[in-house]
Design a protein that fits this description.
Arp2/3 complex 21 kDa subunit ARPC3, globular, 68% helix, two-stranded antiparallel sheet, 2 strands, 8 helices
């Protein structure tokens, strides 16, 4: 199974949007995606060993469907909303809001959403959303962009003498695998269906 990464593809929402989509249409799309990310932060599904949240899945989905420009723009808007005090992050307002929350122990994961959306959008543009294997690899790259700054930030916040990996990585791996399998199967199918519908 091979893929031609030198030939730019069209991301999923690029198939739905007219190439001459107005700035207003793109702005509305970015705001809707930011709202979807807000909603995903509030969803928790019972899972072992920790509840399954939809936020990281939504970040990667936004990147792979919106592309390398609009995807990070939606994530940046979401982070801005949280920074000014809107209760958009998981656990807000109960666990705090605004910059105090953004700069807390989980701040590195939140800031990692930006490069995650960007790398997933960049890879999707190069056709990595065409089949489950390449979609899964793109999602792994996106997750790495979240976990690397998240774990580094957490280590500095709580101290490297603490079990940083046991707190900030290992409990979430089973859920991430489940989300990866779901997205790796559904995203190529959805793109193929949309592509056929647009060509009719």
């Amino acid at each position: 199974m091979t893929i031609n990464t030198s030939s730019p593809s069209t991301v999923l929402l690029g198939n739905l949007l007219n190439r001459r989509a107005s700035l207003l249409q793109k702005a509305v799309l970015v705001m809707l995606a930011s709202g979807a990310l807000w909603a995903s932060a509030k969803i928790q599904i019972p899972f072992y060993p920790v509840p399954l949240t939809m936020q990281t899945l939504m970040v990667i989905f936004i990147g792979m469907t919106m592309g390398v420009r609009l995807g990070p723009a939606a994530v940046a808007l979401y982070l801005f909303e949280g920074a000014i005090g809107l209760p958009v992050f998981a656990g807000t307002p109960e666990k705090g809001i605004g910059l105090a929350y953004l700069l807390g122990p989980t701040g590195g994961y939140l800031l990692g959403y930006l490069p995650a959306a960007a790398i997933c959008g960049w890879l999707a543009k190069r056709g990595w959303d065409r089949n489950p294997l390449w979609t899964a690899l793109a999602m792994l790259a996106g997750n790495a962009m979240i976990y690397i700054p998240g774990l580094v930030w957490l280590g500095f916040a709580v101290g490297w003498d603490k079990p940083v990996l046991a707190w900030g990585l290992l409990p979430f791996l089973p859920g991430d695998v489940a989300k990866l399998v779901f997205a790796a199967v559904s995203l190529p199918l959805l793109k193929g269906y949309v592509g056929k519908s647009v060509r009719r």
